[in-house]
Amino acid sequence: MQNFYRLAYSALMDKSADNKAACIGQMQTVLAGMAESAGVAADGTDLLADQPLTIDQPGQPEALSMVDPRALERRKLSTPAGRACFIHAIAHIEFNAINLALDAVYRFRGLPILFYRDWLQVAAEEAQHHQLLVARLKALGYGYGDFTVHNGLWDITRRTDHDLMSRMAIVPCVFEARGLDVTPPMIEKLKSIGDDESAAALQQILDEEVHHVAIGLRWYRYACKQRGLDVVDQFVTLVQMYLPGRRQGPFNVEKRKLAGFTDEWIARLQQLDQGRTRL
After folding, report:
1. Is residue 1 part of a domain?
2. pLDDT tens-digit readout, 27-79
3. Domain holding 85: CATH number?
4. Hey, what's the torsion of the CAs at 90, 91, 95, 98, to 10 degrees?
């Protein structure tokens, strides 16, 4: 069992996306082997180990230059450099998403075995998304690390590392769900300027992100049920706690419903959004 968590920590701290992907594959194999034997109980109680370490910053390529979000480079999507800058930003989101999924596996202990399978699957697919976008960057004449990035996603991950319910609500159900809203118009914009290759890459990512958000919703609901809390009311409370004043919409209702958001939930999100400003 310690080997499983050593692999998770190694994957988190490794600076290479390829090495992270290799570790994820090893972890999936280890977990499958334990589940088939008597080594892991169906409820995940045998996945308990020593307390996870606080991780202020997971591994990432040394070439990345971190800046305040307000200092990010802004370029027109209509130019090759502008498209590369845009693709680079998405590639960085996907790289962060690998670490987000790995941290969920590493940090939250004693959960049903399905939890670890789910988040290792997410981690593996996020690694594929990152590789897909890096390949697209290379085709445009650039590499990962050629543009500035920010660390906002890991900052919120660090703030929620004490509580499964908060993590599931804020990271997959807010930040990753936001991708369901904003990616379709990005795809149409890329198509309108003739970049069908980048549009196809984003379409593949969008299709799989619906399932990733659904996994986040599943485990957020699980945490609420364990504590006897109303799913929607508690979600609103957590958003107000962690993201006060931050607008969430406009929403892609169709994609959010596919991921498992209910009509009531979406209506509450829209109500919460009224009068707020975009951060």
Report:
1. no
2. 999 898 876 654 455 555 455 556 888 899 999 998 888 777 776 777 788 88
3. 1.20.1260
4. 70
Q: Which two tokens stand for residue 162?
A: 């004490």
> Across the chain, what does the average pLDDT equal?
90
* Preceding peptide of 172 cis, ω within 30°: no
Which residues, 6 or more positions from 261, have their beta carbon under 8 angstroms from its beta carbon? 177, 217, 269
Place of tokens 């936001």: 178
**What is the distance between the alpha carbons of residues 80 and 83, in angstroms, rounded to a whole number?**
5
In a domain, 168, yes or no: yes
User: What pLDDT is recorded for position 2?
Assistant: 53
Is 84 among the domain residues? Answer: yes
Is the model's pTM score more than 0.85? yes
DSSP assignment letter at 246 = B
Burial class (CB in 10 A: 0-12, 13-18, 19+), 105: buried
Asked if residue 115 is part of any domain, the answer here is yes
Single-letter code of the amino acid located at 164? L
Buried-state track 18-50, b at ≥16 Cβ within 10 A, e below 16: eebbebbbebbebbeebbeeeebeeebebbeee
Q: Which domain holds residue 103?
A: 70-273
Number of domains in the chain: 1
Two tokens at 246?
């931050």
Tell me how far apart the alpha carbons of residues 185 and 94 are, in angstroms, rounded to a whole number: 18
Say whether pLDDT at 237 is over 80: yes
The model's pLDDT over 125-178, given as tens digits with 9 standing for 90+, comes to 999 999 999 999 999 999 999 998 888 889 999 999 999 999 999 999 999 999
pLDDT-derived band at 248 (thresholds 50, 70, 90) equals confident
Specify the 3-state DSSP secondary structure of 65: strand
